[in-house]
Amino acid sequence: MLDNIGPxxxxxxxxxxxxxxxxxxxxxxxxxxxxxxxxxxxxxLVIPTGxxxxxxxxxxxxxxxxxxxxxxxxxxxxxMIGGKRGAVMGAIATxxxxxxxxxxxxxxxxxxxxxxxxxxxxxxxxxxGKIPAGFEMIVNNFSLGILGFLLMIFSFLVTGPAIQFANxxxxxxxxxxxxxxxxxxxxxxxxxxxxxxxxxxxxxxxYYPLGMQIAAEAGRSIYFxxxxxxxxxxGLLLAYTFFGTKKARRTAPGAIIIHFFGGIHxxxxxxxxxxxxxxxxxIGGAMSGIATFQLFDVGLVAGPSPGxxxxxxxxxxxxxxxxxxxxxxxxxxVTFLITSFILKLTVTAAEGDEDDYEKSLEKSKSMKAEGKxxxxxxxxxxxxxxxxxxxxxxxxGAGSSALGATTFRKKLQKxxxxxxEVEHYNIEDVPEDADIIVVHKNLADRARRSHQNKRIxxxxxxxxxxxxxxxxxxxx
Amino acid sequence: xxxxxxKGNIKFIERVSSWEKSIKLAAEPLVKxxxxxxxxIDSMINNVHEYGSxxxxxxxxxxxxxxxxxxxxxxxxxxxxxxNSVLYPEEKEVKIIFILAAKDxxxxxxxxxxxxSILADEDVLKQFKNVENEEELIKLIESIES
Lengths: 476, 146
Prior knowledge:
The complex is a heterodimer of chains A (about 475) and B (about 150).
Chain A: H1 10-29, H2 33-46, H3 55-58, H4 61-100, H5 106-127, H6 136-180, H7 187-218, H8 231-243, H9 246-261, H10 269-274, H11 279-296, H12 309-314, H13 321-370, H14 376-381, E1 389-394, H15 400-414, E2 421-426, E3 436-440, H16 444-450, E4 455-459, H17 466-475
Parallel strand pairs in A: 1-2, 1-3, 3-4
Helix pairs in contact in A: 1-4, 2-4, 2-9, 4-5, 4-6, 5-6, 6-7, 7-11, 8-9, 8-11, 8-13, 11-13
Chain B: H1 2-6, E1 10-13, H2 19-32, H3 38-51, E2 56-58, E3 60-62, E4 76-88, E5 92-101, H4 109-120, H5 122-129, H6 134-144
Parallel strand pairs in B: 1-4, 3-5
Antiparallel strand pairs in B: 2-3, 4-5
Helix pairs in contact in B: 2-3, 4-5
Pfam family, one (chain B): PTS_EIIA_2
GO biological process, one term (chain B): phosphoenolpyruvate-dependent sugar phosphotransferase system
GO molecular function (chain B): kinase activity
């Protein structure tokens, strides 16, 4: 929110930027957690090693994680930068990646989605006001189409080789570490690689074949456990359950069930992506897990797939239970502790915003009961810095909002404030990148409902309203 | 642009009995000249019932419109001036009514831009509130059109 961004020194400015970036990632991932859960439940149930194997339904699993989930992330990312057009562009750009790679493209989607949104936003900004009347529709559609086409090809051509490169890097790194004999160090590569959705590539491609060679002679191998331990994921999700942001707290418990008992590790990946620093906790936990397995000299008889606690116990040879269970537990506890610490450091500030917001909402509610001056006091507390887009909104998004926007734009031009964009929308379609929403006071409640974290200026008169005059003064 | 659209869709009337009536009367030429279907009038009235008089843009001037493109055949605008004002909800006096019918999201923006030029300039607005017949109105609008 704008409220707390004021003039800052270098250090706090840096921290604010890091937080803003973290908030951006969170906002891109969180709205889509439901889709991850839907996919996780399906997968835990119907895959051949699941609870209710069903070959027919299992055909959904692959396409859903390859297409649906990355597209949702790319769409959301694009929308956050460039509104509705950005969303479409984000999805187009993401699709190139998906087809260009043979693993799920989550990180890629989180880069290409916002990039797509940015490209179309820049284009729209550059042609604004230069399109002859009547040609808007054709210019809009073809600009998105042509830029989308280019971006789709770009992301298709770039990702294939990039993924291949990452794969090779990971594989050779792992082999080097195995040669050192210091197995806990493997986590340094395993955990980031897993979150990059290379989890199957490293398990099925490297560790399980290695484990099978050893298990053929010794009856068990530790290699089956180095990347499949469900402990770290459990620790991370528990930490989010207790110390995450409010929204994350609500979803993490459900993810625990699907991850730990269902063995679908992908469920915790988004939580790492939301706050990338937490990878430190994952590495720490996984290392301690491997060290514990080594200490007890235990292993599994085969590769657990999916990596749930039940698969672990089922594949534990007799006499190894204590070691295996300890390894999972130690990993859980270590990850939990480190991640909780990280979350406490990074979340408190963001959470403070949230609480402030709740408070101001409370305040505005009680004010509304008293009089009709709904949110004006909140307006006063917000600094005018960094305002780049003002959205006039009304029911249709065509009439009064257009009139208000046109007039206000003229006023800004008179005051040489041409950097500030003024657009009109219907209330529900105001894009995320709008800093202020101007709306008639009768529609303020509806605007508040759709845009809870935005500053809303209420007016009674579309031209020369005193709140508009105040806003103008503030922007000068 | 605005003057072109308004020609033939202008009315001057002494008084009306209710704000609903004022919207109906103002929209009549648009129905007759096949810009909108009758239903669009109900949409505009319902809109005011639901959200109040937010369509009163500045004192005395209202621009009823609705999100109901289905019942709009082509983009258009009509004008009604009342000699005696009528009360809109929330005790708002209105003398001038522009009905806006927008077919898509962009075509009507030039109309809006012209309208905004009238409303934003105090001198023009004053003259505008005092026009007495179609000819004067068109002349005034043509003078501000670029």
